Write a sequence for this structure.
């Protein structure tokens, strides 16, 4: 194909609207595929929004990897990139392509046997290029990440021949972020070690979008640990500050806010994510992401309604508990009053009976009988007072126990 003609078409498309730019880039990519020719032009920038040559190359390699989603195709893509793009653009394009192509081909993962054979061919064809091997390794690791294959990803990054051939690239923040992803999701790795890897990737400078994406995804997929929701919410908020127009980070923020019970904020974040998504929808897996975002919105709404129902139930529980306490107090008071009445009435009867017996029987003098009646009355009065005091003491202790041990409604799970 004529390079001058391609450059002219891309240059003209770059001067019109984005729809026309997308159409022309897609058309040229299809023509190159049909002709079995790799893009013959150079990539001037790393701007995926307006650089027609980069967009066209992206469409071309996207088609190639969808047709043959293997590490060998990825290695061929890397070889072309390093020959046709300026060095300063390499890191951004590499991260964008490896993670993006892994996402769209995530349902095709090569077996260990095929991977081992392919690695030998890649190393031989590239002359052992660490750049090419790193690109291919990141692509395969990205597919393992998208399939939540935590232990397999960890083993691949630690000991596979392809990862080892990546050389110094293994210490880059993106490799570290992928290791953190594998560690956080694995039940065999301690949370402390996984978070140490996470912090190492997150705090690396410059903090690239791909690294932020993998780190936040790691928190979403992690084995549950204390403070997970708060950490996701806070880190996603930082990512949104760095990339305010990034729909994916708004989606991660909504997820974290939902885990923290901040349903109003979560709803606002997911609506913002859906609003931002169409702006670049033609260049990503729009349908898949839109479905995920809508599912998140539904989960936010459902959990908010459940929380409201739980709050209502809790309020009714508190009201019922207060009513039960009032009833218990009333019963206690009534019991005390009844005991007092019975005690006094019994004492009065006893004094009366005693008086009659003392008066009608015996040969005691009037003075002795009066003294005996006074003593009898004093004993019965003391007895009545003791009974009343005891009932009040027991009732007071019971009321204190109710106050101290009554369950706090706020401690009940919602």
């Amino acid at each position: 194909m004529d390079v001058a003609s391609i450059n002219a078409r891309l240059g003209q498309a770059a001067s019109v609207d984005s729809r026309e730019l997308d159409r022309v880039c897609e058309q040229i990519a299809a023509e190159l595929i049909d002709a079995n020719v790799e893009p013959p032009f150079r990539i001037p920038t790393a701007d995926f929004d307006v650089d027609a040559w980069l967009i066209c190359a992206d469409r071309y390699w996207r088609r190639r990897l969808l047709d043959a989603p293997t590490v060998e195709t990825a290695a061929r893509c890397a070889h072309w990139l390093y020959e046709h793009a300026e060095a300063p653009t390499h890191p951004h394009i590499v991260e964008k392509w490896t993670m993006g192509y892994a996402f769209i081909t995530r349902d095709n993962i090569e077996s260990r046997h095929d991977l081992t054979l392919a690695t030998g061919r890649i190393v031989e064809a590239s002359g052992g290029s660490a750049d090419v091997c790193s690109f291919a390794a990141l692509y395969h690791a990205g597919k393992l990440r998208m399939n939540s294959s935590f232990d397999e990803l960890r083993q691949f990054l630690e000991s596979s021949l392809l990862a080892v051939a990546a050389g110094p690239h293994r210490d880059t923040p993106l490799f570290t972020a992928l290791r953190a992803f594998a560690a956080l999701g694995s039940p065999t790795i301690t949370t402390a070690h996984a978070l140490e890897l996470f912090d190492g990737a997150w705090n690396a400078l410059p903090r690239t979008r791909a690294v932020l994406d993998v780190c936040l995804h790691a928190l979403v997929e992690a084995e549950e640990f204390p403070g997970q929701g708060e950490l996701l919410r806070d880190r996603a908020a930082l990512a949104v500050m760095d990339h305010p127009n990034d729909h994916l980070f708004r989606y991660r923020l909504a997820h974290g806010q939902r885990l923290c019970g901040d349903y109003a904020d979560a709803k606002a974040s997911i609506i913002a994510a859906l609003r931002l998504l169409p702006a670049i929808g033609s260049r990503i897996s729009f349908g898949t992401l839109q479905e995920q975002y809508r599912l998140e919105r539904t989960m936010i709404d459902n959990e908010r309604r459940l929380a409201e129902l739980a709050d209502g139930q809790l309020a009714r529980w508190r009201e019922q508990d207060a009513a039960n306490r009032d009833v218990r107090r009333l019963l206690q008071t009534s019991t005390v009053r009844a005991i007092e009445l019975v005690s006094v009435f019994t004492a009065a009867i006893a004094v009366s009976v005693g008086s009659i017996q003392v008066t009608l029987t015996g040969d005691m003098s009037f003075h002795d009988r009066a003294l005996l009646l006074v003593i009898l009355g004093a004993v019965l009065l003391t007895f009545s007072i003791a009974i009343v005091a005891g009932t009040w003491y027991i009732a007071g202790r019971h009321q204190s126990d109710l106050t101290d041990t009554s369950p706090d409604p706020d401690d009940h799970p919602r």
